[in-house]
User: What shape does this take?
Amino acid sequence: MDTNIKQNIESTPTFGDQNDETPSMGGGLPIIEFWAEHTLSPSGPKLWKTLLHKSACLSCSWGTGGQKGGFTNEVGEKLQRCMKSVEAIAAEIQPPISANVFSQHTINELQQLTSLEADRLGRLSFPMILRAGKTHYERISWEEIYQIALSAFSKSPERVASYSSGRSSNEAAFLLQLMMRSLGSNNLADCSDLCHAASTTALKQMFGTRTSVVDLENLKQADCVVLAGSNCAYNHPRLMNELIKLRDRGGQVIVINPIEEIGLVKFGSPAFPIKSLLTGSDISSLYLQPIPGSDTALFVGIQKSLIEKGMVKIEYLQAYTEGWEFVVEQARTTDWETITKICGISQPEIEAAATIIGKSKRVVFGWAMGITQHNNGVDNVYSIANTALITGNVGFEGTGVMPIRGHSNVQGFGSMGVTVNLKTEIQATLEKLLGRSLSRVKGYDTRALITAADDEKVDALICLGGNLYAANPDSTQAKRALGKIETIIYLATKPNLGHFHGLAKQNTIIIPVLNRFENPHKTTVESGNNFVRLNDEGETHIKNAELISEIEFLTELAHRIHGEYPVKWRKLQDTKYVRQLIAKTIPGFEKMANIDETKEEFTISGRIFTEPKFPTPSTKAAMFITPLPKLILPDQKDFGIPESIKGVIVSLITGRSYSQHNTVVYKIGDQYRGMPHRNCILMNRGDAESVGLKEHQRVTVQGDAGKLENVEVIYGAVRQGAALMFYPEVNAIFKAQIDERSGTPGFKRVPVFVY
Ligand SMILES: Nc1nc2c(c(=O)[nH]1)N[C@H]1C(S)=C(S)[C@@H](COP(=O)(O)OP(=O)(O)OC[C@H]3O[C@@H](n4cnc5c(=O)[nH]c(N)nc54)[C@H](O)[C@@H]3O)O[C@H]1N2
Ligand SMILES: Nc1nc2c(c(=O)[nH]1)N[C@H]1C(S)=C(S)[C@@H](COP(=O)(O)OP(=O)(O)OC[C@H]3O[C@@H](n4cnc5c(=O)[nH]c(N)nc54)[C@H](O)[C@@H]3O)O[C@H]1N2
Ligand code: SF4
Ligand SMILES: [Mo]
Assistant: This one.
């Protein structure tokens, strides 16, 4: 392979020093160093301009920025911008990739790039196509793109699909689903299918809502937060400020996580430079490290203890819930031995958690991927919400259930109807708008899309952002499946592994798009706290290029496919009209109609419960019993490894390092976990030593779909039987069990053999 392409990339500076010592707390001075390094660098002025632009932070769903300015949150607090935001912007303000990169390097060479190297190439700036049998991506005209797309999307509606990732706007999301549904296709796969689908499914059944019932104001009233399966010190850093303030006012934080994440024990936040940054603030009051995948058992244990202590709010259950008798009965009759054996937490520790929850006046229960990404993800969420309900902690200020969402507008995509489970109200209004009934054929979610493609049932795919190839388990299957689709169109800001490995059978097209702070029109996004932000128009630093806005591309494509009637697609290039359509179609978004004039950002109506009355048919919350998981691990022989080879089977947690955004790696090391590079496995010392392994030794990690070799063992505060590796690289080696009810892959409990 031509090494030039790699050499060029390696000479661009990566972020920070790889060899820092493992810090004794999360956050702290490295954050300030990072800010200084970036804001004082040659790209500093561009970075500042973007930070001050009136648009929402690109990175996570916690949400900040918008009309109040780059550093102000929805309740008007200042200095609300974390370094993850800077990291995301820094990647977007990279120079454009020179055309030579694609004319001089074959697809085989591009496939040698790592995620970090692909991202470091720079910004995409002209449309390209890789045609069947060709070795290079080449430039393509817009006219030819529309012709190819038109013929691809004229196939039978069941054979066309979209995939999307939550960084695009509400307007783009709305148009995407309108275009697909107008075609007669419900195949609207979305990254949320791999993420919080279990939360959406469970919350809808229990409360008739699909999102968090807690807003920022509410969180500020809580005196206890239960944080399960979230590493917000890395992934939602400003949530840490709320936890620090909660501890300062005498509140308690219970963390539930098989890994002792240092930032969830102690965190130094730059928002409190004097009292927190240098010395760190205590976060967890109680830290429980259960076996991966066992949270349902742990929460049933907490319920059992609450019952035994007489801390259950029976009057609340009777008045506001249904099915509670069965839930209470399940917890009462499940014996302690079963519970403690499954979750690996002792009875006294479970009781300590129950006491804190039972004695607190207002408890918020928050969770993220450690809860949803399991084959029983929906049960996990039920068990958390059951615990909230039996203690009367939903429907009052300072209480509630709070899925901590992923991408900065992933929740907006769901609200706009980019989902295979469309709300009946939205379906009805769309039918009125289009003047005909919509297809009732069940659409493909992300996993179903991959399976259908692998079965040769998909001809055309449009990807609005994201990285479908690398986000899925079993990379070999993902690659093979995408390779059976005739035409794939990727809309993206920067190249990623999917553009080089997720290649279509005939035509793979890459469309370079403007990002949130560059669009020539206003857009909106929705945070995980149900707050809608308005993004101002902006401009791009990339000159003499052919970038297009997602809105322009989608409306033009829809116009070519559908013509002028009943939707005047080209008129919708003025996003003001899209917002008017959204206001008319999407429940809770009425204020969108005038947002262009009022500039009033808002909390979506009907989402935050201030009384325990819910949008369910009976107005009561429905409770469901939660079967305890059977956590069986395969045997060594199931991995096809002879008994003579010594090794250990562990439940592998696959997730994010400190410096990556999903499939995009920004920096190779994870300093807070002491992992110097990507090819590490974080292990419990006892597990490693039990089979004669030592720290820094190189091992093979074998899953059910492949193996990674030369992996460095790093000892960490991981509970016995568990280990951690980073995605997307690790997706090469396992197939993942799927939660049947939500379609979510079990990314957090992957059985592997380490030897
Ligand atoms: N900087 C940055 N921010 C991000 C992202 C990013 O990649 N980078 N990604 C965004 C997206 S899309 C998402 S979904 C979120 C992800 O945010 P998180 O959910 O916080 O991220 P993960 O790294 O997937 O893992 C969460 C935690 O779950 C724990 N865990 C694993 N298994 C279990 C279990 O069985 N039980 C319990 N209780 N805990 C478990 C892990 O140890 C880990 O600490 O962050 C969003 N924000
Ligand atoms: N093993 C394992 N696998 C996982 C997970 C895990 O924890 N473990 N987590 C899962 C989760 S929670 C998620 S959400 C998925 C993430 O899956 P995706 O959302 O599909 O992946 P991302 O890496 O976030 O996508 C990044 C790409 O989006 C493009 N992009 C960025 N901004 C824009 C924009 O404004 N417009 C457009 N059109 N494109 C843009 C860029 O080209 C960038 O390369 O991965 C899932 N996969
Ligand atoms: S916490 Fe999330 S939304 Fe807030 S600044 Fe950081 S990355 Fe952006
Ligand atoms: Mo996610």
